[in-house]
Write a structure and sequence with these properties.
Layout: H1 2-17, E1 30-36, E2 41-49, E3 55-63, H2 66-79, H3 84-99, H4 124-142, E4 148-149
Parallel strand pairs: 1-4
Antiparallel strand pairs: 1-2, 2-3
The structure holds zinc ion (ZN).
Length: 151
Amino acid sequence: MNELQDLYRELILDHSRSPRHFGKLADATHTAEGINPLCGDKLRLYLRVADDDVIADAAFEGSGCAISVASASLLTEIVIGKTRDHALEFFQAVTRHLTAPNANTTVDIDLGKIRALDGVREFPTRVKCATLPWHALNSAFKKQAAPVSTE
Ligand code: ZN
């Protein structure tokens, strides 16, 4: 278990130090901003959704703590190539998984690298950092103009 935790810690550090798909997406079809006032995380997510509802590209910009940046970086890796519906299923599963009161609660979807964020479940304030980019994803598809806030 310790080895796995070390691996997860490495993954989060890696993604927070060298976030994937970081920057603005010039030809984005969907965008939303996520704000977590408690921590000071402020991220904008960009998506380019193709005609067949597949997310062809994703990117994010902004600033935040290591958890929020790593989560956003992982999100972009995960959603590229997925359909809108599949990505939203992932949003539901990630938020349900990370906010579950019981650490053994599982969801019926393979969360893959997202499991690296499992450690935040013990810290409710950090859960908001981890789920922030996912709420932005949901908001982008709802075409909400106002930023989504955790508070
Ligand atoms: Zn944060």
